[in-house]
Design brief:
With 404 residues, the protein is α+β, with helices and mostly antiparallel strands. It has two domains: 219 residues, no CATH class; 133 residues, no CATH class. The protein has 14 helices and twelve strands.
């Protein structure tokens, strides 16, 4: 029943997204807004159940009651029907585009999923409203609407910021001292994932490499929708009158979420620590009884090698820039996938290889907190177990006397 619900939920998400996309073709082409028109930034809260929506979303609303216009511009749209979508996604070739739809549809979507919706009315003159509107309409044209999505530097949130920076240039100023500086991409994403989606956080930390540990300025924090909202609250605009005023005129809550995100008790650290305990007991019993445990070791090192090959492939063969220079390859070494077959054949190469792996992992554990990349702490039990099995293969009496 739970699986059926999730599938139905995905169908609803796709259907509504396609409806919003198709609305772009039906959007009214108005060349002149009235003096009642206003522009606002919409910030939508995260989904408490779905990892892909854990960071929230942003849109720009154009509202002109005199002309009956109430539409939302959304830079987070992509084509589900593209036959090469999944191939391009795997390669890191993410083509997103700007779409526009009725604001009432957007509200129904987020009300249905019980996600908060905040609105910030921007203090623009009618002429400034017109400039932003014309920029969005021009950006909506087929030749301009598409862009290559980057998770952290060019996404559906940063595009919202860039609309106003492009339109107003040096006239807009963000006072971002409130946010501080020098946080990394990984640290910022951890704020949203570590407690609510610990397994998703682990997966991202494993797949994405050293670029995730680059320090950002507060201006770069705006790849996160929440920081778009808070940054606009600290922004100022030098108007045509020569007076600088706060960019946000008024703020309001359009929908308040009633749900409270709940994390899981079975965190990666807890589960992996328990597995380390079980693995330690098994290793001790095998040592006492003189048992080799070849299938355990083969399976373990073969899987680690496959993980390493996947990480290496993301680095070398895709355009996922954030997946490059991944230090997780130190514990998920790709060569393990091939060296695992040595476990079934006695040789000096097997002993030397796994002894080297054991000592290498010991060094890795000792320098864990000093690496340029912040490796996930839940991987320490995995690394300890791998080190223990590598030493057992390389130095145990059972493995070095195949007749036992």
């Amino acid at each position: 029943m739970n699986l059926l619900y999730k599938q139905l939920k995905k169908i609803i998400v796709v259907s509504i997204s396609l409806l919003i996309c198709s609305s772009a073709l039906k959007a009214k082409q108005i060349t002149k807004l009235t003096e009642e028109a206003r522009i606002s930034v919409i910030t939508m809260g995260p989904d408490k159940d779905e990892l892909y929506s854990a960071f929230g979303h942003n849109a720009i609303r154009v509202f002109d009651p005199a002309l009956g216009i109430d539409i939302a511009y959304n830079y987070g749209t992509f084509n589900y029907n593209d036959p090469e979508f999944y191939i391009n996604f795997t390669k890191g070739y993410l083509l997103y585009f700007l779409s526009v739809g009725e604001f009432s549809q957007l509200m129904r979507f987020y009300e249905y999923y019980d996600r908060f919706v905040h609105e910030q009315d921007l203090d623009f003159s009618p002429a400034e409203v017109q400039r932003v509107y014309e920029y969005l309409e021009n950006n909506l044209q087929p030749d301009n609407a598409s862009y290559f999505y980057d998770y952290f530097y060019d996404n559906c949130a940063t595009r919202i910021r860039d609309v106003f920076v492009d339109v107003f240039s040096d006239s807009i100023r963000f006072d971002l001292e409130f946010a501080g500086d020098n946080l990394t991409v990984r640290a910022l994403t951890d704020l949203y994932l570590e407690d609510k989606f610990p397994w998703g956080d682990l997966g991202i930390d494993i797949c994405l490499g050293l670029p995730m540990d680059s320090e950002l300025t507060a201006y770069d924090f705006m790849f996160l929708p929440d920081f778009i909202e808070s940054s606009f609250d600290h922004a100022f605009l030098l108007h045509e009158s020569g007076v600088e005023r706060p960019l946000v005129n008024t703020s309001r809550i359009l929908n308040q979420s009633s749900s409270v995100p709940v994390g899981t008790f079975f965190t990666p650290l807890l589960v992996f620590s328990f597995l380390l305990f079980i693995g330690t007991v098994i290793t001790w019993l095998q040592w006492r009884l003189g048992i080799r445990g070849k299938w355990l070791d083969f399976s373990w090192f073969f899987i680690l090698g496959l993980v390493g090959l996947l990480l290496l492939g993301l680095w070398v063969f895709t355009d996922h820039a954030a997946a490059s220079r991944n230090y997780n390859l130190l514990w998920a070494f790709p060569l393990h996938a091939f060296a695992a077959f040595l476990i079934f054949k006695p040789s000096s190469i097997r002993k030397k290889y796994f002894s080297f792996v054991g000592w290498g992992l010991l060094v890795l554990i000792l320098i864990w907190n000093f690496l340029p990349q912040d490796l996930h702490y839940a991987l320490i039990p995995i690394t300890i177990f791998t080190m223990m099995r590598a030493f057992y293969i390389g130095h145990s009496y059972a493995y070095n006397h195949e007749n036992i």
